[in-house]
Amino acid sequence: MPTININGRAVQVDADPATPLLWVIREHVGLTGTKYGCGIAQCGSCTVHLDGQAIRSCVIPLSAVQPNQKITTIEGLSSDSSHPVQKAWLALDVPQCGYCQSGMIMAAAALLKDKPKPTDADIDEAMTNICRCGTYNRVRAAIHVAAGNPQAKQG
Amino acid sequence: MKHYGDPVIGQQVVSEAQDRAVPGAPSSPGRRQFVLSSAIASGGLALGWHVPSHAQGAGVAPEVNAWVVIKPDDTVVIRIARSEMGQGTLTGLAQLVAEELECAWSRVTTEYPTPGQNLARKRIWGNFSTGGSRGIRESQDYVRKGGAAARMMLVQAAANQWSVPVAQCVAADSVITHTPSGRRLTYGQVASAAAAIAVPENPPLKDPKTWKIAGKPLPRLDTADKVNGRQIYGADLKLPGMLNAAIKDCPVFGGKVASFDAAKVQGMAGVRKVVQVGSSAVAVVADTWWQAKSALDALPITWDHGPNAKVSSEAIAQTLRAGLDAAEAFVGNQSGDAPAAIRGAARQIEAVYGYPYQNHACMEPMNATARWTPERCEVWTPTQNGEASLAATAAASGLPIAQCEVYKIHLGGGFGRRGFQDWIPQVVAIAKTMPGTPVKLLWSREEDMLHGRFHPVTQARMRAGLDAQGNVVGLHMRLSGQSILASVAPQNLRNGADMVAFQGLTPSGDGAIGYGIDHLLVDHAMRNPHVPPGFWRGVNHNQNAIYLECFLDELAHAAGVDPLEYRRRLMAKHPKHLAVLEAAAARAGWGKPAAPGVFRGLAQHMGFGSYTAAVAEVSVSKDGKLKVHRIVAATDPGHAVNPQQIQAQVEGSFAYGLSAALFGECSVKDGQIEQENFNTYEVVRMADMPRVETIVMPSGGFWGGVGEPTIAVAAPAVLNAVFAATGKRVRQLPLAKTDLRRA
Question: Which are the contacts of A155, defined by CB distance < 8 A and separation ≥ 6?
Answer without folding.
Answer: A92, A137, A138, A141
